[in-house]
Amino acid sequence: MGDTQPAIREAARRSGSQRRGAVVAALMLSMALAALDSTVVSTAVPQIVGDLGGFSVFSWLFSGYLLAVTVTLPVYGKLSDTFGRKPVLVAGTALFLLGSLLCALAWNMGALIAFRIVQGLGGGALQGTVQTLAADLYPLEERPKIQSKLSTVWAVSAVAGPGVGGVLAAYADWRWIFLVNLPIGAVALWLIVRHLHEPQREREPQAEHESQKEHVPQGEYESQGEYESQGESAARKAPRARVDWAGALAVFACGGVLLTALVQGGVAWPWLSGPSLALFAAGLALAGLVVVIERRAAEPIIPGWVWRRRTIAAVNLALGALGLLMVAPTVFLPTYAQAVLGLGPVTAGFVLSVWTLSWPLSAALSQHVYRRIGFRDTALLGIGAATLVLLAFPFLPYPGAAWQPTLLMLLLGAALGLFQLPLIVGVQSTVGWSERGTTTASVLFCRQTGQTIGAAMFGAVANGVLAARLGGTGDLDSLARDLDTGTAPEATRHAVADAVHAVYLGASGAAAVAFVVLLLLAPRRFPVRAE
What we know:
This protein is mostly helical. The protein contains 21 helices and no strands.
């Protein structure tokens, strides 16, 4: 009888490993869907507009999806801490697939935009819950592996999106852009339902202090008594969960209004126009309402400890700056490659995509660095290098050679991999299961918001430089089209180069802000919790 026990334990271990592998496969498929749909529509716009009309509002195909993803992240984070990851991920995937099917059936541009927002409502659950589950499934020592895999899937999917959309629109029909989500999502949903089994959780006390020392390679924790003194050793079953629906609605409304003002300001209307000022005023009023509701709620959607704890607050601000600086390469580099360097769309896409090679590789190797010098100092090393790389871009010769920005993108990916992953792994390791969803969602929300602010701010900077160089004529999009057809004069190419250089200077400033935030606010040793 005793001889059978090791065999039983080995079989159980293998079964658990297989289940975890199936869940990881589902997470990677879910991440690919969320990333792909943020960019896949871009190259299919001419076909969509030709079929449905609505050229004046087609930009909402992108901004509507991204707004819905961003404003729902805090809500889904809290719900996953309250009810568990599985029901949130299942519901989010189902909603995303429903939105995809409705998009494929859209009869006009208004309907397509509305269904893209439905897609985004599900996409918010995919983004936040996938990252949270990755931390749940793996101990601290193994998290870099899964996070680097997810980073690779995200980067490759986001960069490949325009190409996939263009191929489907050209050789099939634009509706297949959304229909291909259905079988992929169905497989992910089946794997989650079948293989993801969450244990019954107990309520964990909220640790308001951060005196624990950071994880060391030997796995020793010198200040674990802090949590035990607050009752962790006597954890009890959580009472019936109460959902702060009023707070969720207020957060959704506030985020939607403010992000709409940022996305549409300077595009659909001038920044100082009536609609812009009205949206900002309404957003600020709703922000005040959110504060009032959340301070009174028993289980707030955005709890105060997210900003009271130095580690989480510093990581939120730093990754908000990351979202802002990422706008420079992702939005403006392809235009620079085609307009200034004279490259074709495919080659220009390659210049951007090289950072998808160095980013996940650097992220995977970052564990060897932060185990020696700590999460914060590793992130400082990465963002410091990124600042220098971004600052070097304006000094590239005109017109220059394609290998020069390509090399800078390769270095930038390596630097940002060293910056982002230690912060995500580190901040997820400072909280217990019942707070991890909220913490992860706050980090992703800040990064998404940074990207939205960056797109609005750097778009204004680029257009301002172009106007100054060209006497107030044209905008970046129309000039890029002229350059693509070879009809723009040399002065216009110089103006585009100056505009993109100014954007990269602004991005280097954002990187410097992230460096200062981590240096001054983040503790040198993250208070990692024993697992």
